[in-house]
Every structure is written in structure tokens, then in C-alpha cells.
Backbone:
């Protein structure tokens, strides 16, 4: 469903601030893979997600989604294949629009606009049923402005919007990092259920090693713009945080450097 072939990306080339963020990155995801991504500071995790999303041109390499080479597609065209939830809960929704208006905009992504009633009664009922699955009471607040919601509610709504049209690949960029632990656990539970029920292919960056081990069927660890560990199946189920740190040290030849991950 997703393949990255020899991806290179350097920021500020030929300057004192030159940084090679992706260094010959290769990755292949089968349909239904739920892959958690962890790595030290500056390992290239978010840069990888931006490469998939088309945030900027690559130095070289290919991005292939469901057999289609999208490397040269602009980000807004590539968005038809992708769903994405950002770290900042404010980025995935329009605060001045109502909950149902946000859902309607997500539902119409990639389709032509016409002059007709925006949201019909049947569609409104569908949104109500979807919101009910979140168990956050939002099904009774369809006409509320999204700006009035808490960070966790907005992130759950963003997750629903990102998966409304069943994307080829779902990108979760530390989407619980800005939430308190209880809310983060709730959003992770919702994420896992939506991915499982819809058989989605997903990449989830997290700074929490326990979450990286608990969720998904596969775990990759990045360092210096490359994947240095790729653990799946029974080996992943038996992992502990200490095992993961030890394997990182063996694979990279250095200690793991991410204070947030170590503290969590």
C-alpha cells in the first residue's frame, strides 16, 4: 500500500546549517499494516511523514501509494490518498465552523462542489452515529463551534475526519503528544479501533515507547534518516522498553537520545 524507495532529503544544502534528514530511506507497508515509529531527536520521523504527504520536493527517491507513483504530485493532489492527524489539535479542524460543517468538508474532500443544500438530514444522522462511536458526547453537539471543544475532543474529531473517506494511508504524527495522559489514552484507543475496524494502513509516530510496543503489528525505529530496527509479529509482542533500548544501542552504536521518550 505504501513504498518509499531510496528517499533523500537535505535541508539548507551547502550552508553551515545543512542537515541531511533522510538518508536513503526505504520502507514498504502492506495493506492493513499498523506501524508505530520511534526514534531519537532529529532521527527523521516527521520528515518521513512530510515526504509521504508531499510537503516539499525530495532530493531523490520515490513515493508510491497503492501502486501509484505520487513523487511529483503536489501535496493537495496527494491528499486524496492520505489522512493525517497532526500533533497540534488545532491544526486538523476549522475552529470557526460547526462540528457537522467540519465533517461535511472532510466528507467532500476530492469531490466537485455544487450549488445545493450543504448537509441533508440523512447525512446529519450519519455524522451523529459516527460521533456516537467516540463516546465523547459530541453526537449531541453537531451545531457547536469546534473552537469550543477541548484538545482531546478536537483530536478525536480530526481522527474521524481523516478516516471518513478511508484513506490509502493514515499518518499519525505524535497525535497524542499535546494531550494529558488520560485523554491521550482515550484518543489512542479510538485510533486503534478505527484502524482495526476499517482495515487501514497506518504510520504512527510516538515518543512513548510503551505505546509503540502496545499498538500496531509492526514497530520501526529510525536514526540519522534511516530505519535501523524493524520488529513485527511475535518478536514485537515480546518486546519490553529495556529490550528496545538495548537493540537501539546495538544497531546504532550509540545511546538513545530522546528525553521525552525516555521519561514517558
Residues:
Amino acid at each position: 500500500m505504501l513504498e518509499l524507495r531510496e528517499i533523500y532529503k537535505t535541508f539548507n544544502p551547502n550552508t553551515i546549517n545543512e542537515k541531511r534528514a533522510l538518508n536513503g530511506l526505504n520502507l514498504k507497508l502492506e495493506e492493513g499494516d499498523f506501524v508505530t515509529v520511534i526514534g531519537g531527536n532529529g532521527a527523521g520521523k516527521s520528515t518521513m511523514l512530510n515526504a509521504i504527504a508531499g510537503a516539499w520536493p525530495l532530493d531523490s527517491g520515490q513515493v508510491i501509494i497503492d501502486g501509484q507513483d505520487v513523487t511529483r504530485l503536489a501535496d493537495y493532489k496527494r491528499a486524496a490518498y492520505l489522512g493525517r492527524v497532526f500533533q497540534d489539535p488545532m491544526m486538523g479542524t476549522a475552529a470557526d465552523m460547526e462540528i457537522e460543517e467540519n465533517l461535511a468538508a472532510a466528507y467532500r474532500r476530492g469531490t466537485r462542489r455544487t450549488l445545493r443544500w450543504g448537509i441533508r438530514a440523512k447525512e446529519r444522522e450519519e455524522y451523529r452515529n459516527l460521533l456516537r462511536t467516540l463516546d465523547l458526547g459530541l453526537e449531541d453537539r453537531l451545531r457547536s463551534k469546534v473552537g469550543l471543544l477541548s484538545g482531546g475532543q478536537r483530536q478525536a474529531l480530526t481522527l474521524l475526519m481523516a478516516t471518513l473517506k478511508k484513506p490509502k494511508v493514515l499518518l499519525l504524527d505524535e497525535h497524542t503528544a499535546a494531550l494529558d495522559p488520560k485523554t491521550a489514552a482515550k484518543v489512542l484507543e479510538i485510533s486503534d479501533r478505527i484502524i482495526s475496524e476499517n482495515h487501514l494502513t497506518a504510520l504512527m509516530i510516538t515518543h512513548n515507547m510503551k505505546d509503540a510496543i502496545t499498538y500496531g503489528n509492526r514497530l520501526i525505529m529510525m536514526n540519522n534518516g534511516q530505519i535501523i530496527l524493524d520488529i513485527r509479529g511475535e518478536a514485537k509482542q515480546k518486546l519490553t522498553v529495556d529490550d528496545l533500548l538495548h537493540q537501539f544501542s546495538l544497531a546504532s552504536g550509540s545511546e538513545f537520545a530522546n528525553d521525552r521518550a525516555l521519561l514517558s
